[in-house]
Write a structure and sequence with these properties.
By secondary structure, the protein is mainly alpha-helical. It is 55% helix and 5% strand.
Length: 614
């Protein structure tokens, strides 16, 4: 009630123009998150799919699909998926039947409210209203926040919670500071990559609030610090050893033997490529090689091309990789804002805490040996960059020269317009490979088959394809869940008449029913051969006389379909030609349109061997 009264008082202080502009901003913000939300993105990544399906299963049964996970045990869904993110998605499944919309509803809500959390924290730190509102604006239209607000990944809920914790602990007029404890607890279990960062985050902001702001007591500071350290220790010493996530320890610089061997190999190579000299042990050693690796990893976290221009087309093909995580105009604003932030004497303490946190946020990327993925692992640091960007933008907007102010506004608006164009007109098509759109097509194709048709899908990822089939066709309900759970508990990826398997592909001529194979799935070797003889064979699968499910990007074949009875009577082309967003909503297409658009007949282009043509 107190909060609502404060909002009402603030609203009454605004002029008519200010109210109009703020209302327009809120409308645009909401539209940017919800417009075509069930259609863009056009597919769903595996990490999202796990959370979405488990949220649906939890809503129905209080557990996951397989029936072994419960949130109060603080166990991760898998070694790659956080403990509590599933719960954050639940409200969407209370409201919507469409799984894409249901899974994206809460991220969209978080994406709408996060800019205001960032603005609240900015107000606590800088105590200037203009900077606070510009921070809200910059965060609202930041490309990273925008696109993650429309997906079901786990970093956004974690970031939302830790920024809420920082805003509460640094707020001058907030009487319920104790809320930082449960919020810290929840944030800790929302994204695996943030766990090591939660401790310095809450401890440093609490120290700032106690020692410099004088807004919390010494007792609360120590309570928060001990709680954060204790939570991490409990997780590392008690929870982690009993979890499958303990495998992640093996992919760090401390335990990864392959990484250690590579460091030794690099040292030996450097010495081999150097003339004999007495300085070799000093110039080329494991400490030097490890230091060089860590420095490269650390510096790569701030790669300007990735952050401001190109994104991550290779590591994050599901994202808007035609664009950076920020706008290009944000780069000069960032440097200008840093200069303003560190030269204003009254901001020195807040800038000092900001600087320490910004410098240690890349720590997870230094410790892991898996890959150099930036879009998620560096995201806390990227969200911290919103503050100097907003400070730099505010400094320009408050200049007395009107042409400069309106020029900056117009230029920033153009960058926002360009990202909007990329997101709604280019991204739906070029992200299809990264979002495994072929699985959506396959799911729709399978769902169109008669119920009495025996269907076998040979794939290297049977669980992934089963989950896609269940999700896109809305097959998880109270009636089907017991059978799905029983099959998964027995290691069987099957739903009614459809079976997904990673077994080798038998001779197609000897199979019955509908058979679908992943292009790279191998043939079964002939019986009676030794392992040595099998290794000499070429077991690569040949397409034979098959139809195809192909990539929308280059029409490359991904799945081969044998014994088709649904599409063979229609006129099929050899390439995919998508021109409208409605064509990507494959579930809504009539059979003829679906087949002619998405099922390809490449046989006229193939050169068959005599055996294949028989």
């Amino acid at each position: 009630m107190v909060f609502l009264k404060q909002v009402k008082t603030w609203w009454l202080t605004l002029s008519f123009t200010q109210r109009t502009l703020f209302s327009l901003f809120v409308v645009v913000l909401i539209v940017s998150r919800f417009f075509l939300l069930s259609q863009i993105p056009t597919g769903i990544h595996y990490d999202e799919l796990v959370y979405v399906l488990q949220a649906k299963a939890f809503l129905l049964s209080g557990s996951d699909l397989i029936g072994t996970w419960n949130p109060w045990r603080l166990m991760p869904l898998t070694s790659q998926h956080a403990e509590l993110t599933t719960l954050a998605l639940l409200p969407g499944f209370w409201l919507f039947a469409n799984p894409l919309l249901a899974g994206r509803f809460m991220p969209a809500v978080l994406g709408i409210t996060f800019p205001f959390l960032a603005g609240w924290l900015a107000w606590n730190l800088w105590r200037e209203r203009k900077i606070s509102w510009v921070t809200v604006f910059v965060a609202a239209f930041n490309p990273w926040v925008w696109q993650l607000s429309r997906m079901s990944f786990d970093p956004l809920p974690g970031i939302w919670l830790i920024f809420l914790a920082a805003a509460i602990i640094t707020a001058r007029k907030f009487s319920h500071k104790w809320l930082v404890l449960p919020i810290t607890f929840l944030s800790f279990f929302h994204y695996q990559g943030y766990k090591i960062l939660i401790v310095p985050w809450v401890v440093l902001w609490s120290y700032f609030a106690w020692h410099w702001q004088k807004t919390i007591s010494k007792q609360l500071f120590w309570t928060v610090a001990i709680f954060a350290f204790g939570l991490f220790t409990f997780w590392y010493a008690v929870l982690l050893p009993s979890q499958g996530a303990n495998q992640r320890n093996q992919k760090t610089i401390f335990y990864d033997q392959t990484f250690k061997d590579q460091i030794v190999s690099n040292v030996m190579t450097d010495r081999r490529l150097s003339l004999d000299n007495q300085l070799q042990p000093i110039a080329h050693n494991k400490f030097q090689a490890l230091s060089e690796y860590l420095i490269k990893r650390y510096v790569s976290n701030f790669d300007f091309a990735t952050l401001f221009i190109l994104g991550e087309p290779n590591l994050s093909p599901f994202s808007v990789w035609s664009h950076g995580f920020f706008y290009m105009i944000d780069l000069p604003l960032l440097f200008y804002g840093l200069w303003v932030m560190f030269t204003r004497k009254k901001w020195h303490r807040a800038a000092f805490i900001w600087g320490i946190l910004f410098l240690i946020m890349p720590l997870p990327r230094l410790l892991t040996t898996v890959n150099e993925w930036m879009i998620f692992r560096g995201s806390i640091g990227y969200m911290l960059m919103l503050f100097p960007i907003a400070i730099g933008l505010t400094a320009l907007l408050t200049q007395p020269k009107q042409w400069l102010k309106w020029g900056v506004i117009a230029l920033y608006g153009l960058f926002i317009a360009r990202f909007t164009y990329d997101y709604f007109y280019r991204y739906p098509l070029y992200s299809t490979n990264g979002l495994y759109f072929e699985q959506r097509v396959l799911a729709s194709y399978l769902h169109r088959q008669p119920a009495n048709t025996s269907i076998t899908v040979y794939t290297s990822e049977p669980e992934f394809l089963l989950f896609s089939y269940l999700n896109y066709n809305r097959l998880v309900d109270n009636n089907s869940l017991p059978d799905i759970r029983q099959n998964l508990q027995h290691g069987q990826y099957r739903y009614d008449n459809v079976t997904f398997t990673n077994e080798c592909v038998p001779e197609i001529n000897n199979t019955t029913g509908l058979v679908i194979t992943e292009r790279n799935q191998p043939h079964c070797p002939p019986a009676g051969l030794t392992e040595a003889e099998i290794k000499l064979l070429d077991l690569a699968l040949e397409p034979g006389n098959s139809l195809s499910i192909s990539s929308p990007l280059d029409s490359g074949e991904i799945f081969w379909i044998y014994n088709d009875a649904l599409c063979q009577h229609f006129v099929l082309t050899t390439f995919v030609d998508v021109n409208h967003l409605t064509e990507l909503a494959v579930e809504q297409l009539a059979d003829q349109r679906f087949c002619e658009l998405w099922i390809k007949d490449v046989n006229p282009l193939r050169v068959f061997s005599p055996i294949d043509s028989q």
